[in-house]
Amino acid sequence: RSSDLEGILRKNYNSIFTRISAAFHGFHDIMKEMSKHYNQKAALEQELPTATEKLRTTNDCILSSVMALTNATGKIATFFSNNLDYFTASLSYGPKGGSRSEE
Q1: Rounded Cα gap, residues 85 and 67, in angstroms
Q2: Do 82 and 25 form a contact (C-beta atoms < 8 A)?
Q3: Separation CA 87–CA 14 (nearest Å)
Q4: Distance CA 22, CA 13 (A)
Q5: 13, 32, 40, 73: least surrounded by Cβ within 10 Å?
Q6: pTM metric for this prediction
Q7: Rounded mean pLDDT of 23-52?
Q8: Mean pLDDT over residues 5-21, rounded?
Q9: How many CB atoms neighbour CB 4 within 10 A?
Q10: What is d(CA 12, CA 15) in angstroms, rounded to the nearest whole number?
Q11: What confidence tens digit (pLDDT) does each residue in 17-36 have?
Q12: Which SS3 state, helix, strand or coil, does residue 33 take?
């Protein structure tokens, strides 16, 4: 049944959500590293005498987007980890009679 979350046992919900939370935090860490390295790259390019205005504005646009994505991934990771108990509890309720979730 799809209502059984494809046969996942209820006792595993917390473990699964904890792993998802860790993945969100890992993605946020990756975005922070990417942001740091791109920022360094852009700073070096800004110092080049041959850097064009188009390059500068392109770097600024990319940096702005990467920073926004970094902030968003941080908010998602924090929200998810702060609400692990709620997610687990909300899925732990429901019809149990004869479903695989009782196994």
Answers
A1: 29
A2: no
A3: 8
A4: 14
A5: 40
A6: 0.73
A7: 96
A8: 78
A9: 16
A10: 5
A11: 899 999 999 999 999 999 99
A12: helix
Reading the block at residue 40, the tokens are: 């360094």
Query: In the Cβ-directed half-sphere of 22, how many Cα atoms lie within 13 Å?
Result: 6
Q: How confident is the model at residue 55 (pLDDT cuts 50, 70, 90)?
A: very high
| Tokens linked to 79 | 């929200």
13-47 and 84-92 helices, crossing angle to 10°: 150
Q: Tokens 């959500």 — which residue?
A: 17
pLDDT of residue 102: 44
User: Which amino acid makes up residue 38?
Assistant: Y
Q: Which residues contact 34 (CB under 8 A, 6 or more apart)?
A: 66, 70
Question: What per-residue string of b and e applies to 12-30 under the rule 16 or more CB within 10 Å gives b?
Answer: ebbeebeeebeebbebbee
- Structure tokens given for 5: 């979350």
In eight-state DSSP terms, residue 25 is H
Q: What is the rounded CA–CA span in Å between residue 55 and residue 63?
A: 12
